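This protein record is not my work; I was only asked to verify it. The record follows directly below this note.
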Amino acid sequence: MKLYLISDNIDTQVGMRLAGIDGVVLHEPEAIMEAVRKTAENEEIGVLLITEKAADMVKDDIRTFRMNMHRPLIVEIPDRHGSRDIAGSINSMVEESIGLKL
């Protein structure tokens, strides 16, 4: 199983590349979703890392994708500027998917 990165900044991509993780830097919502679709078609990729800013650009599409696809696991990661409320995001996703409020 491989990991793949979709980032909105080059610094995150360079850091992940140093760790052996391939990826792309994209700034347009259409290009981001096209990369998500291509990643889903690749049987070798099991985890898709996406920076928070890139994920925010396609928030609704990512939510739909997570609900309907079993693979890849999509994990939002902070970029060099820090993190937003990741616990709140996880709680929101759990509440939407199974109706359980944490």
